[in-house]
């Protein structure tokens, strides 16, 4: 099977990171106009993304790629990826609910690159080098400035635990995607995403049912429109690009590039939600963009 070029994988990851940045604003609007809970929102996000991806796959009518893994190995791969995705998304929503957006974001997204960098070094033998370490440090510093300096932040232990669990789910998902890609078992990005979302939807169904899958209050048409957007752009599109790109790009680089999520969220907050453009927003965004650019250039050079 022909492997995706690394340069294109980098572009895919950048687009995925920016698209993910719009999910937080859309989710905030869902919580504002309805009583839908985080577990139910995660369930509908996965189900909606799954339906869209299945439809796209059917319209493309392309032959399935050649795979050398057994059905059992494929089931294990998709099962672990799906459970990791369910944990990553739902624990993050729970962290935001328990300790607020600022602390939940900085702990979950900040711990992710650290866990991935350590895991990539121990499990995959990937080295960052001095430049890579500086880029990761710059990205984490930019994230802290961008999120924590924008207002009051209250640290609550339960929220921190949820955020760390979210980071662990993201780290497992990223490391496994890279490992499978290196061993020729990643399939294609679309097929992997479809299977992963099917498993995540099944895993989230009981939690969503407990919370209530249908909102009892709020503007139902507005909720449907927001869910349709969440399922399409920051879910179906973003995760298909993520799984394709993460299979060919070093894990630590993936973790830093996808930190573009809070950058995208900050841009939306300023341009669409009317928030003030503060010095912290500018400085944090600049630091993170510089770190992402540095790692992308290093990744491109290492593959020549």
UniProtKB/TrEMBL annotation:
Pfam families: EamA (PF00892). It is a multi-pass membrane protein. InterPro entries: AA-Vitamin_Transporters (IPR050638), EamA_dom (IPR000620), EmrE-like (IPR037185). Keywords: Membrane, Transmembrane, Transmembrane helix. The keyword Secreted does not apply. It is found in: Membrane. The keyword Cytoplasm does not apply. The chain crosses the membrane at residues 9-30, 42-59, 75-95, 101-124, 131-153, 159-177, 189-209, 221-242, 254-273, 279-298. Residues 8-147, 158-295 form the EamA domain. It comes from the Bacteria. PANTHER family: EAMA DOMAIN-CONTAINING PROTEIN, INNER MEMBRANE TRANSPORTER. Belongs to the EamA transporter family. This is DMT family transporter. It comes from Streptomyces endophyticus.
